[in-house]
Design goal:
This protein is an alpha+beta fold. It contains 27 helices and 22 strands. The protein has a five-stranded antiparallel beta sheet with strand order 1-5-4-3-2, sandwiched between helices. The protein has a five-stranded antiparallel beta sheet with strand order 7-6-10-9-8, sandwiched between helices. The longest helix is centred in the C-terminal third of the chain and has 62 residues, at 655-716.
Length: 921
């Protein structure tokens, strides 16, 4: 992970491990900030001017923007400066580093919703917008955006990286010369030229195969494994026109591979590269003899055997992944190719049109993506691969989406208090759990069966192909070794050539072991010389071939972390004696069963999880719908007042419909009973009201009657003092009439409670105006803490009466206390009245709090505080607080009493609902 060969981009991000550590540090920093967010929020909330709210939102927004820029920049750096594939749709090229990178970046992206969640309260205070990142919608939105972002990044940047890689391949393919081969030829040419035995053979034989065997066995044994070696002998008096043409094609216009070298490089008539070595031998008898060695590449050498498995071609060879095909055209003709794509032998149609473009281009023809490079005026290189299906993009996006969704869901679970939720929704939770677990078990079982089936089918297909291949190699070998008696006969040059031919025909590397299990001949000697493989056969294979007498055995090898299958089979002669044990690694670049199996498995698992999430949502919705009538009953029973129960509309005919009908019947009966009770209550109320009115009127009428009777008696007696008494009695009568007037006004106000219209009211302005009206006393200080734009809907005159009544009560309580203190010889306390307007702890409500430092209400009187006729003052009807309570309740509000924590006196809290219509405007 810390190797620069995996990834490197500068002194800081010098390796993939360093970059992942930086990502982890940033992620942990955000997580630490999120854990300590309450302390920060307390500091921000303390600022009433909202400046800290704006600063916090700005800082977090900047951090989110920098995080997004960092993610895009570093992700681009990884794609362009590493050999790690992040394109999830290229399954065969994925590695463990791919997993590390995606886990790291999903963790890094998860810090964005955490940061957004941190500023939820400041955003609400500034804009009134409420949100929850960890809600179902928030989780789906985050996972979708994360998946689309990563898909776009690795698709677009992956295409750029592919273009760069293809350009490098094309530049190397444009060079025909095989540098590795040239180095080997330079190493053997002097030995061949100075070999006197070759000169003797040239003079004494006309069978030039002996010469070829001598040269390949002594000097070019390794070269002959990878290249076709041919031999031509010319005399000075050569007259054969075909031989002359061949000589001219190889020698005329050729370029020496090095200064003074006997080998030259040229192209044949088809445009393919070839090497020719010219050696001259002289003898007095035959004169000058020219020996030409032709070396041509075996085009399929790198596609088979150990070189394909170990990804180690010849020195200087261009290693292109097996999913790519390439071709080279010279003068419009196909001269070389590799891969599965059926290139046209002559450039025509769109191929010709694109090949004429002097710049590199990329185009889609059919189901293939083609990369064209115009090397020269007459030379063009084409690299092709299959077009990636849309389904693979969709599966990749869904896979990232699922990972992101589960990640943020885990974070959401860790922050929520789940205690009691399961018991609170007892039946819903259990029905949801049963449905979810049933679907989970079904989908898991189906997915396991499908994945196992895909892998079993993959293994069966591979085993069938390997069986056919080892049987073919075994038959070809036994056909050539029928008359042999010992494995030593298989080590001759002639048999080595036969083994090479069989290997070329079957596109396999063949290794022969003695009956004792030791290697003695192979078409890939380099893997044994470099000790990549041991010189002994596999023990399991040896036991199954020698002791279990199996016709063939297939074993899975592991070399340097690379796994592959090796096929073993015995070779018998005509007498049934075992000559040797052959082995051949299985390679077939044209088939990708493993990739196909992995893709199908990922596809099945992805679809399974998507169905699981959809099922979870659907079962939750269905269960909620099923329990909705019951929940609605409970809600209406809890919150409805007498006579206010509502019917439930439920059209389905099922198990719940009977319960709904019973509930609706109960509501009907309760409504009827409620009407009767209401009628009785109204009659009782009117009777009580009549008695109250009679009582309130009788109290002042009695002294009026007594005073008038007294005045009449004085006048009847002609008492001279009756005129002086008249003024006093008149004043008393007028006072009693004022009491009657006040009583009438009180009942008149009570009668108007249900008649006034609701209008928009600015509570802040109303409270400020009322404080201004009362703030004219020297012995009392008024304080007001307001809240801007606090709009409600209500009867304005009646709300004004509530404010006036509560402020009047506070003033009278303080003044009465000051009078008592003065009469008792104590220093009167300076009065304080505080009115506060703020958002309530109850959602969508305002709190208007009236506090004073008066004597407050005794504990024994609190239960009767809001009942009619109760008062602690020496005068008054006792209807003030009762009327206030009725006004507020008719508007959907409430009033509560408590002792003031700050002032130690009375504290009345009026809770009034906000106006939704005003807020939306």
């Amino acid at each position: 992970m810390f190797s620069p060969t995996v990834y490197a981009d500068g002194p800081i991000m010098y390796s993939l491990g360093a970059l992942l550590i930086i990502n982890a540090w940033i992620t942990l920093l955000f997580y630490a900030m999120y854990i300590g967010r309450r302390t920060v929020l307390e500091y921000v909330i303390a600022d009433k001017s909202m400046k800290r709210h704006k600063v916090m939102v700005g800082i977090v927004t900047l951090a989110i923007a920098l995080t997004v820029v960092y993610v895009v920049w570093t992700f681009r750096s990884i794609i362009l400066n590493s050999n790690v594939s992040l394109e999830l749709y290229k399954i065969s090229s994925l590695s463990r580093f791919t997993l590390y990178i995606y886990v790291s970046y999903l963790a890094l992206l998860s810090t964005i919703p955490l940061a957004i969640q941190m500023i939820r309260y400041p955003i609400y205070k500034l804009t009134g917008w409420k949100y929850d990142v960890f809600s179902r919608f928030g989780r789906c939105l985050f996972s979708s955006l994360a998946a689309l972002t990563l898909l776009a990044l690795f698709s677009i940047l992956g295409a750029d990286k592919e273009n760069n890689r293809v350009e490098i391949w094309m530049n190397r393919l444009a060079i025909d010369r095989d540098l590795g081969l040239e180095l080997q030829l330079r190493g053997v040419e002097n030995a061949i030229a100075s070999d006197n035995s070759l000169a003797s053979v040239v003079r004494t034989t006309t069978d030039y195969r002996v010469l070829l065997n001598r040269i390949t066995e002594s000097y070019m044994n390794r070269i002959s494994k990878d290249y076709d070696v041919s031999l031509f002998v010319f005399k000075d008096n050569l007259q054969d026109p075909q031989m002359l043409k061949m000589f001219n094609d190889r020698v005329l216009g050729a370029v020496p591979i090095a200064s003074g070298s006997r080998f030259v490089y040229s192209r044949n008539s088809n445009g393919r590269a070839q090497y020719t070595g010219m050696f001259v031998y002289y003898s007095p008898d035959s004169g000058v003899t020219k020996l030409l060695l032709g070396v041509n590449s075996k085009s399929d050498r790198d596609e088979r055997g150990y070189s394909f498995i170990l990804n180690s071609g010849a020195l200087g060879a261009v290693i292109i992944p097996p999913q790519y095909s390439y071709s080279k055209y010279i003068d419009g003709k196909l001269v070389s190719y590799k891969g599965d794509y059926p290139y046209p032998t002559i450039l025509t149609g769109r191929f010709k049109e694109k090949s004429n473009d002097m710049t590199s281009s990329r185009t889609i023809i059919g189901n293939y993506v083609h990369f064209f490079c115009h090397v020269s005026q007459d030379e063009c290189i084409v690299i092709s691969r299959l077009k990636i299906p849309v389904l693979q993009y969709v599966v990749s996006a869904c896979l990232v989406l699922l990972l992101a969704y589960f990640w943020i869901s885990l974070m959401g679970l860790s922050r929520r208090k789940q205690s009691g939720v399961f018991e609170k929704n007892y039946y819903k939770s259990r029905v949801n759990t049963v449905l979810f677990m049933s679907m989970l078990m079904t989908l898991v079982t189906m997915s396991i069966i499908m994945v196992v089936f895909v892998y079993k089918r993959n293994d069966a297909n591979i085993m069938r192909l390997m069986t056919n291949k080892i049987s073919t190699i075994q038959s070809l070998m036994e056909d050539r070794t029928r008359g042999l008696t010992s494995y030593k006969a298989l080590a001759t040059a002639n048999m080595t050539a036969i083994i090479d031919d069989i290997g070329n025909y079957t596109r396999s590397d063949i290794t022969l072991y003695t009956p004792g299990g030791k290697v003695f001949n192979t078409t890939a000697p380099e893997v044994f010389e470099k000790m990549v493989l041991g010189s002994r056969t596999n023990p399991d294979a040896y036991r199954n071939i020698m002791y279990s007498n199996k016709r063939y055995y297939i074993h899975r090898e592991n070399v340097g972390g690379i796994r592959f299958y090796t096929m073993y089979a015995p070779i018998f002669n005509d007498n049934g004696d075992m000559l040797a044990i052959l082995s051949a690694p299985y390679t077939d670049s044209g088939l990708s069963f493993k990739t196909d199996a992995i893709f199908h498995s990922i596809f099945v698992i992805t679809v399974f999880f998507i169905l699981l999430i959809i099922t979870r949502f659907m079962t939750t919705k269905v269960v909620d719908k099923m329990f909705r009538p019951i929940v609605e009953m409970g809600r209406k029973m809890v919150y409805a007042r007498t006579g206010g129960l509502e019917y439930i509309i439920y059209d389905n005919e099922d198990e719940i419909s009977g319960l709904v009908r019973a509930y609706n019947l109960m509501v009907h009966d309760l409504n009827e009973s409620g009407k009767q009770v209401a009628q009785a209550e109204r009659e009782r109320a009117w009777s009580e009201m009549a008695r109250q009115v009679a009582h309130e009127i009788k109290n002042p009428l009695t002294p009026i009657k007594l005073q008038i009777q007294r005045l009449i008696r004085l006048k009847a007696k002609n008492d001279p003092s009756w005129e002086t008494k008249f003024d006093d009695i008149s004043r008393l009568i007028l006072d009693s009439i004022d009491v009657l007037t006040d009583t009438a006004n009180e009942f008149s106000t009570f009668a108007k409670l249900y008649t006034e219209e609701l209008v928009p009211i600015n509570l802040d302005e109303m409270a400020s105006d009322q404080i201004s009206m009362f703030d004219d006393k020297d012995n009392i200080t008024f304080q007001y803490y307001g809240l801007k734009d606090a709009w409600v809907m209500g009867p304005k005159p009646q709300l004004v009466r509530v404010f006036v009544n509560l402020l009047t009560n506070a003033v009278q309580a303080i003044e009465n206390q000051q009078t008592e203190d003065y009469e008792a010889g104590r220093e009167p306390v300076h009065g304080q009245i505080v009115l506060s307007l703020r958002n309530s702890t109850k959602e969508s409500f305002y709190d208007i709090v009236f506090e004073d430092n008066g004597p407050g209400i005794r504990d024994e009187n609190r239960s009767r505080l809001f009942t009619p006729n109760f008062t602690t003052k020496s005068s008054g009807t006792g209807l003030g607080l009762s009327i206030c309570k009725n006004i507020l309740e008719r508007c959907g509000g409430e009033i509560q009493y408590s002792q003031s924590f700050a002032l130690k006196g009375a504290c009345f809290t009026v809770r009034f609902p906000k106006s939704k219509q005003i807020i939306s405007q």
